[in-house]
User: Fold these one by one.
Assistant:
Number 1:
Amino acid sequence: MSTAYQIIVCGSLVPDPLQTLEPVQAATGPALKNEMMLPSVLDPWAGHALFEAANLAKQNPGSKVTLLSLGPKAKLQQLMMTIAQKVPFELVVVDGSASGFMDSTEVAAALAAAIEKIPGLDKTKLLVFGGCASASRDAGVTMQLIAEQLGISDVFLGVDELKVQPDGSLQLFERIEGGQYQVSTCACAPVVIGWATGNLPEPPNNPQVGMANMRGIMPALQKAAPAGLKGDKIKFASVELPKQVRQTRIVKDTPVDEIANEIVTWMKG
């Protein structure tokens, strides 16, 4: 017997990784040069979470997938033109900065508050998905903080697979060291899951799915509530690109141990 889940995926936009990202010190704090002009994509880890959520909803009739995004409305509208064609979902938008310089505590509080306001929220069926990391806000704590705000004690991170057992329990495969998995069983919802790369490929574009999604996406963007992020909890002394250092010396007939020791000494220095 299948269970109807209420799956909320936390995911937003990040700058296209193929672009050159240059940090600058703006009037309001650190930012990326020409950030609003940079092409954006859905955060890769959040993308895996969204595809896994859609697959789970497809296997359990009556389930609903909601994509919760915190970011600038104008940029999200551009992003949704492509994401909408992948899988069916409803969109909830919190209008605010998607900068990687935002504090994870503030971001998690804004997302948790938005989840609490979703109409018909039923925590007995609630699965909160997200990426275990992020291409911008990679503090690695956002999903745990959301769980704390929502009062959810079952949190699993680095998940690659989720299986619904015949008794309704959830079996989860979490990445651990050595390329192995820790297999855990969660009796029931609610649960917060931070996905790694999962096992599913990116779905192909489906124009019909896109048209159905866009009917709800545009109203969701128009009524997006402001996030109210202050961004004053973290102070950055400076931001700069990592310095490229290259020191080359050509030697002959040097023992391997001597080369290794020299490298270690250089690294320590």
Number 2:
Amino acid sequence: MAWKFFKASTLCGSSAAARSQSKPQQPTARLFLFMDNLWHRTLHRLIRVSYFDRVTVRHAERLPDPGPILYIGLHRNGAVDGFTYKSICTRAVFMVAKQLRRSPIGCFFFSGIEVARDKDGDPAAAAINAAAMKECAKRLHDGGELFIFPEGTSALGPRHLPFKSGAARLIEQHLAIGAPLTVVPLGIFYESPTSFRARVELVVGEPLRTDLPANLSQPARVRELKQRITAALENVGVNVPDAETLAQIERLACIATLGTGRSFAATQKQLERGVPPAVEAAWRELEPVLTQHPLWLHQGVPLFPMSSLIVYALLLIPTGLLALLGVVLNLPPLAAAAWAGRKFPDDRNVVLLWKVLVGVPAFLLWAGTLLVAAAVSGHWLWLAVWLAATAVSTQLWYRVKKLAVVVHNGLRFPGLRARMLAFRELVLKEVRDEPA
């Protein structure tokens, strides 16, 4: 396992739970906690801004006032989910897998209340998890906010993984003492979960009902709450029979939303109920034609120009050159991230995570090297050029990729343009535009 290369647990310091339980009173300890929290908030914001083109929130009006609040989120794309959820759960402490903080690089990226997962085989798992549950209960009792992934681990499959009972038990314990609690379900949708500068949509569900019949036993109360958690999370996520169906509705959602302002998540939820027969029939006819050609794809879809190809080509030339300049000036960290995304992942749900784990330190090292070089040489103008090119390239990357796909397909396969655009019009007609 690649983590063993970094393993040096004693350098990490204690977990967030242990630090909180120790109730440090000394100014230096309080300063350490403040700087630790500030570091991780800043780093996670940097990751969101640099790795995603846009993070949007659906039903943001459902987000409650400050705590006690328990957020329960679907887990799709590895620990990267936490970076993204943090953009709306800014005050929440996350439960994190102890495995993530077993090395200095893990402590560099992650903070939270540590739990041991079954698959990690930690012999002290029972004691670790009991302490974690106690710390979680205390945080809610003190009016704080907490974030839990009830699945325990992530997967980019066609439906959620089985939910654990920990969140239900935590809610039941809190309600048993008569304390109020708001439970908010959250879903997450990646337009392209393994890609750099893709888009993400977060969905805020209706708060969970926490009223329970008085005559229920404690185990029955936990089972009832777990059923409600399951229903709430299924309502904010997509659940289809198999990976092929998921790929189909993601592809159709891409066609229906690109350039339209529609919600990617809402479109997938509508298609979850079934693909319109007319769209299904048209795609069965069109797909064999498309697969005969080496088309370029954007999120699994071959894009073609909506208007004159010349307009798209004229847009691609300057934007492409600016984006390319940023790539050339940051080639070492970009190459390191791309290499890590191919070398270390054992499944798609951790591809982007490995790009982040290697790419961010590589970028910071690269930036530090350029800063030192500018200070030594006195050529600060070159550093300013690098900063500007990096910022502009980052902002343009998503659009340049789409333009490149459009221009390539339009130039090489102009005969397919009319059929693809006709199919898009059919999708827009048959798939309703539900309110975002």
